[in-house]
Give the backbone structure.
Amino acid sequence: MQQAEKDPGQAIAVRIKIEREARGWSLAELAERSGVSKAMISKIERSEASPTATVLGRLSGAFGLPLSVLLALAERAQERVALHAEQPVWTDPETGYTRRAVSPPNALLELLEVSLPPGVRVPYPASAFAFQHQQIWVLSGRLDFLEGPTLHRLTEGDCLLLGPPADCVFFNPGKQSARYVIALTRR
Protein backbone atom coordinates (compact mmCIF):
# COMPACT_ATOMS: atom_id res chain seq x y z
CA MET A 1 0.00 0.00 0.00
CA GLN A 2 1.39 3.38 -0.99
CA GLN A 3 1.32 6.18 1.56
CA ALA A 4 -0.38 9.43 0.51
CA GLU A 5 1.99 12.35 0.07
CA LYS A 6 1.78 15.10 2.63
CA ASP A 7 0.46 18.53 1.59
CA PRO A 8 3.17 21.02 2.67
CA GLY A 9 0.66 23.89 2.85
CA GLN A 10 -1.58 21.95 5.20
CA ALA A 11 1.39 20.86 7.31
CA ILE A 12 2.44 24.52 7.73
CA ALA A 13 -1.13 25.46 8.63
CA VAL A 14 -1.29 22.76 11.29
CA ARG A 15 2.12 23.73 12.71
CA ILE A 16 1.23 27.41 12.99
CA LYS A 17 -1.96 26.56 14.86
CA ILE A 18 -0.07 24.15 17.15
CA GLU A 19 2.55 26.80 17.96
CA ARG A 20 -0.10 29.47 18.62
CA GLU A 21 -2.22 27.22 20.83
CA ALA A 22 0.81 25.86 22.71
CA ARG A 23 1.46 29.43 23.85
CA GLY A 24 -2.18 30.04 24.73
CA TRP A 25 -2.38 32.90 22.22
CA SER A 26 -5.52 34.05 20.46
CA LEU A 27 -5.43 34.90 16.76
CA ALA A 28 -5.45 38.58 17.77
CA GLU A 29 -2.44 38.12 20.05
CA LEU A 30 -0.42 36.36 17.34
CA ALA A 31 -1.43 39.09 14.88
CA GLU A 32 -0.19 41.77 17.28
CA ARG A 33 3.09 39.97 17.99
CA SER A 34 3.82 39.16 14.33
CA GLY A 35 2.44 42.10 12.41
CA VAL A 36 0.38 39.67 10.28
CA SER A 37 -3.35 40.37 10.13
CA LYS A 38 -5.71 38.22 12.18
CA ALA A 39 -7.68 37.45 9.01
CA MET A 40 -4.56 36.21 7.19
CA ILE A 41 -3.50 34.02 10.12
CA SER A 42 -7.00 32.54 10.26
CA LYS A 43 -6.91 31.79 6.50
CA ILE A 44 -3.46 30.19 6.82
CA GLU A 45 -4.58 28.00 9.74
CA ARG A 46 -7.63 26.85 7.74
CA SER A 47 -5.42 26.14 4.69
CA GLU A 48 -7.35 28.75 2.68
CA ALA A 49 -4.20 30.79 1.97
CA SER A 50 -0.53 29.92 1.54
CA PRO A 51 1.81 32.13 3.54
CA THR A 52 4.61 33.98 1.77
CA ALA A 53 8.17 33.70 2.99
CA THR A 54 7.81 37.15 4.58
CA VAL A 55 4.66 36.13 6.46
CA LEU A 56 6.29 32.88 7.61
CA GLY A 57 9.31 34.87 8.77
CA ARG A 58 7.09 37.18 10.83
CA LEU A 59 5.16 34.27 12.36
CA SER A 60 8.29 32.29 13.20
CA GLY A 61 9.80 35.43 14.77
CA ALA A 62 6.70 35.89 16.93
CA PHE A 63 7.06 32.27 18.10
CA GLY A 64 10.75 32.80 18.86
CA LEU A 65 11.69 30.08 16.37
CA PRO A 66 14.05 30.27 13.41
CA LEU A 67 12.12 29.87 10.15
CA SER A 68 14.10 26.69 9.41
CA VAL A 69 12.89 25.13 12.68
CA LEU A 70 9.25 26.10 12.02
CA LEU A 71 9.44 24.53 8.56
CA ALA A 72 11.18 21.39 9.83
CA LEU A 73 8.48 20.97 12.47
CA ALA A 74 5.80 21.45 9.81
CA GLU A 75 7.38 18.81 7.57
CA ARG A 76 7.16 16.29 10.39
CA ALA A 77 3.69 17.36 11.61
CA GLN A 78 2.00 14.20 10.33
CA GLU A 79 4.17 11.91 12.46
CA ARG A 80 2.29 10.69 15.54
CA VAL A 81 4.46 7.78 16.62
CA ALA A 82 8.04 8.05 17.78
CA LEU A 83 9.47 4.55 17.55
CA HIS A 84 12.04 3.86 20.26
CA ALA A 85 14.70 2.86 17.72
CA GLU A 86 14.23 6.17 15.86
CA GLN A 87 14.15 8.53 18.86
CA PRO A 88 17.13 10.88 18.79
CA VAL A 89 19.61 10.35 21.63
CA TRP A 90 22.31 12.85 22.50
CA THR A 91 25.23 12.03 24.80
CA ASP A 92 27.43 14.69 26.37
CA PRO A 93 30.97 13.56 25.51
CA GLU A 94 32.37 15.17 28.66
CA THR A 95 29.97 13.81 31.32
CA GLY A 96 28.17 10.82 29.75
CA TYR A 97 24.81 12.54 30.36
CA THR A 98 22.26 11.19 27.83
CA ARG A 99 19.03 12.74 26.65
CA ARG A 100 16.44 10.86 24.54
CA ALA A 101 13.72 12.82 22.72
CA VAL A 102 10.76 10.49 23.36
CA SER A 103 7.82 12.48 21.93
CA PRO A 104 6.71 12.58 18.31
CA PRO A 105 7.85 15.84 16.70
CA ASN A 106 4.41 17.46 16.60
CA ALA A 107 3.53 16.96 20.27
CA LEU A 108 2.40 19.94 22.34
CA LEU A 109 3.90 18.16 25.35
CA GLU A 110 7.54 17.19 24.88
CA LEU A 111 8.92 14.23 26.84
CA LEU A 112 12.66 13.78 27.34
CA GLU A 113 14.24 10.78 29.08
CA VAL A 114 17.51 11.62 30.80
CA SER A 115 20.21 9.47 32.34
CA LEU A 116 22.61 11.38 34.60
CA PRO A 117 25.69 9.43 35.70
CA PRO A 118 26.77 9.45 39.39
CA GLY A 119 28.55 12.60 40.50
CA VAL A 120 27.66 14.55 37.36
CA ARG A 121 26.53 18.16 37.70
CA VAL A 122 24.83 19.94 34.75
CA PRO A 123 24.12 23.69 35.13
CA TYR A 124 21.64 25.64 32.97
CA PRO A 125 21.07 29.41 32.90
CA ALA A 126 17.61 30.85 33.56
CA SER A 127 17.35 31.70 29.85
CA ALA A 128 17.15 27.96 29.06
CA PHE A 129 13.82 27.87 30.92
CA ALA A 130 12.38 31.20 29.76
CA PHE A 131 10.04 29.81 27.11
CA GLN A 132 9.05 26.53 28.78
CA HIS A 133 6.96 25.07 31.57
CA GLN A 134 8.72 21.96 32.93
CA GLN A 135 8.21 19.06 35.29
CA ILE A 136 10.85 16.56 36.36
CA TRP A 137 9.74 13.01 37.24
CA VAL A 138 12.43 10.77 38.74
CA LEU A 139 12.18 7.17 37.52
CA SER A 140 15.18 5.78 39.43
CA GLY A 141 18.11 6.98 41.49
CA ARG A 142 18.54 10.36 43.17
CA LEU A 143 18.52 13.85 41.74
CA ASP A 144 19.41 17.07 43.54
CA PHE A 145 17.89 19.94 41.59
CA LEU A 146 19.04 23.43 42.51
CA GLU A 147 16.46 25.95 41.31
CA GLY A 148 17.83 29.40 42.01
CA PRO A 149 18.50 29.33 45.79
CA THR A 150 16.16 26.35 46.43
CA LEU A 151 17.49 22.79 46.61
CA HIS A 152 15.03 19.99 45.78
CA ARG A 153 16.21 16.50 46.81
CA LEU A 154 14.29 14.11 44.58
CA THR A 155 14.15 10.31 44.68
CA GLU A 156 12.33 7.61 42.72
CA GLY A 157 8.71 8.57 42.01
CA ASP A 158 9.08 12.25 42.97
CA CYS A 159 7.82 14.85 40.50
CA LEU A 160 8.74 18.55 40.60
CA LEU A 161 6.95 21.39 38.80
CA LEU A 162 9.53 24.08 38.07
CA GLY A 163 8.78 27.63 39.12
CA PRO A 164 9.65 30.86 37.28
CA PRO A 165 12.86 30.72 35.21
CA ALA A 166 15.98 30.65 37.40
CA ASP A 167 19.55 29.43 37.08
CA CYS A 168 19.39 25.67 37.74
CA VAL A 169 21.72 22.74 38.37
CA PHE A 170 20.94 19.04 37.90
CA PHE A 171 23.18 16.92 40.17
CA ASN A 172 23.29 13.18 40.80
CA PRO A 173 24.61 12.66 44.37
CA GLY A 174 24.05 8.89 44.21
CA LYS A 175 26.26 5.95 43.27
CA GLN A 176 24.07 4.86 40.34
CA SER A 177 22.76 6.73 37.31
CA ALA A 178 19.67 8.85 37.90
CA ARG A 179 16.93 8.32 35.30
CA TYR A 180 14.24 10.93 34.97
CA VAL A 181 11.68 12.31 32.55
CA ILE A 182 11.41 15.98 31.72
CA ALA A 183 7.96 16.99 30.49
CA LEU A 184 7.82 20.43 28.92
CA THR A 185 5.52 22.72 27.04
CA ARG A 186 6.36 26.07 25.53
CA ARG A 187 5.16 29.24 27.27
